[in-house]
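for the recovery benchmark. tokens below, seq after
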């Protein structure tokens, strides 16, 4: 008789049953205890763009307030993983272990755009949305001395000369600014001559220097020049006027039905335990209600917009559907 059989016979069957139940309960209890103690070590927060950019600034500004409301000595470590239009950083988030210790900022619609028309290393189903924090609407700007006094003037000029009126965009085709411009083209039935620039700074310089007649980039990036009287914002691609520039009409008010912009929020790899997801969502919501952070965001012209996990998931799906429709009508690559 083997030692293992002797050992089994030495333990009454009723005791074996209790032992099995105890081991099962312990196995189930271990993850639950880990979730209750979360976070027990620093949380890596991936930003898919270089340090100093808009997403990086927003991430670093809000991180300490999320830490504060997570409690338990939480620490968020912002890590820049720039490259390939954001794909390197977003792939790192998508493929990380879903334990709550790797999360990151995702930027809509840029993250969606990489899944359309070619195969990225992730899909939008690779992520568990946590919360959206920022929504920066798209806008069209002209220099202060421009002949275009309104978006209607610019659209009329483009309609009269299809493909000849130049509008600069910050970044490559398929980025948030280009997609916003495509949405405006589609809604207004016009076609612009799109001129990509390496970023907002060179595009802003070209606009104010008279090298391009109009430019498309996010509203927050135009506020300083607008307040100084160096540029005029012709329209904002938002549902309602921005609290940062309440004097600027939306495109919707001007008869062009378009909603477009750049949303920045937190997401985790698919499979994040619900209890941890809720803790992160609640901490993000508390951070955006924290008076100190609200004041900082206002001073920094960060346009806050909170969406909880479920609302954010629906927003992501709607963004995906809108981009697929734009791609079907006018592929950008």
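predicted aa per position
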């Amino acid at each position: 008789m083997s030692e293992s059989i002797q050992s089994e016979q030495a333990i009454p069957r009723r005791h074996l049953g209790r032992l099995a139940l105890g081991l099962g309960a312990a196995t189930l209890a271990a993850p639950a205890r880990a979730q209750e103690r979360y976070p027990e070590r620093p949380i890596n927060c991936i930003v898919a763009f270089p340090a100093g950019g808009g997403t990086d600034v927003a991430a670093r500004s809000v991180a300490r307030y999320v830490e504060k409301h997570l409690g338990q000595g939480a620490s968020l470590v912002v890590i820049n993983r720039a490259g390939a239009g954001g794909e390197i950083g977003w792939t790192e988030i998508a493929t990380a272990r879903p334990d709550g210790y790797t999360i990151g900022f995702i930027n809509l619609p840029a993250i969606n755009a990489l899944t359309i028309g070619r195969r990225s290393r992730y899909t939008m189903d690779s992520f568990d949305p946590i919360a959206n924090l920022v929504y920066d609407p798209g806008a069209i700007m002209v220099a202060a001395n421009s002949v275009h006094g309104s978006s209607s003037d610019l659209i009329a000029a483009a309609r009269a000369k299809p493909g000849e009126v130049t509008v600069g965009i910050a970044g490559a085709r398929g980025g948030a600014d280009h997609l916003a411009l495509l949405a405006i083209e589609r809604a207004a039935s016009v076609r612009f001559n799109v001129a990509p620039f390496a970023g907002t700074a060179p595009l802003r310089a070209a606009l104010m220097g008279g090298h391009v007649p109009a430019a498309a980039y996010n509203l927050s990036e135009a506020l300083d020049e607008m307040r100084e009287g160096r540029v005029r914002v012709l329209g904002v691609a938002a549902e309602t006027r921005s609290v940062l520039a309440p004097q600027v009409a939306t495109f919707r008010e001007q008869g062009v039905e378009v909603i477009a912009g750049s949303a920045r929020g937190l997401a985790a790899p698919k499979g994040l335990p619900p209890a941890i997801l809720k803790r992160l969502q609640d901490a993000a919501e508390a951070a955006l209600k924290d008076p100190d952070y609200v004041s900082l965001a206002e001073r920094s012209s960060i346009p806050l917009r909170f969406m909880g996990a479920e609302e954010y998931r629906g927003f992501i799906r709607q963004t995906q559907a809108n981009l697929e429709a734009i791609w079907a009508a006018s592929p950008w690559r």
